[in-house]
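Pilot study result, target chain (188 residues):
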Amino acid sequence: MDAKLFALIDTATIEKKSKTLLWIMQRVCNLNAAIVEYRNKNGSFEEKRDDILMIKEHLNIPLIVNDDISLVPFCDGLHLGQDDLLKYADSVAKSVECVREIIGSKILGISTHNKREILEANNTSVDYIGLGAYRKTDTKDTGNILGERLSALALLSKKPVAAIGGIKLSDRIANAAYIVVGSGLYEN
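Predicted structure:
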């Protein structure tokens, strides 16, 4: 079974590609994405909230927000990278517990990059893990490239795996429940 599309709507990429939020929402809809993540590293709270509300209005799929827990009331969940996760407590387990208290039963995903982080995530209440980077990407620092090793590492996870980092729509990654596609959404 092929992995489902997990679409990453990144406002910096929208701007770089000279597109609009409406354009990328239509693209995500046409590609039958199973879930969408909204990432905006520079916008105001109001701008982010308004974008999230617009996405929720136009797309009838789960929407999670990247890193900003204050926006969770407007969407279906949250994705945290390792650095952002550890802002809540001094360990992954305690951080997930703290975040879970805030967001309740909403979707919670965290980024992982190696065996240790996967095993830590297995013992938490996260709903999925992002695992990568699969290949180098321009949208994020990707110092640890897993390449084909990603499929083997995914087998260690007790949680559904979302393959992240430089993923293209044409990629087929064994043992991944989702492929997270950001910049690749703009390719034909």
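One observation from the pilot: The longest strand covers residues 4-10. A full batch analysis is planned for the follow-on phase.
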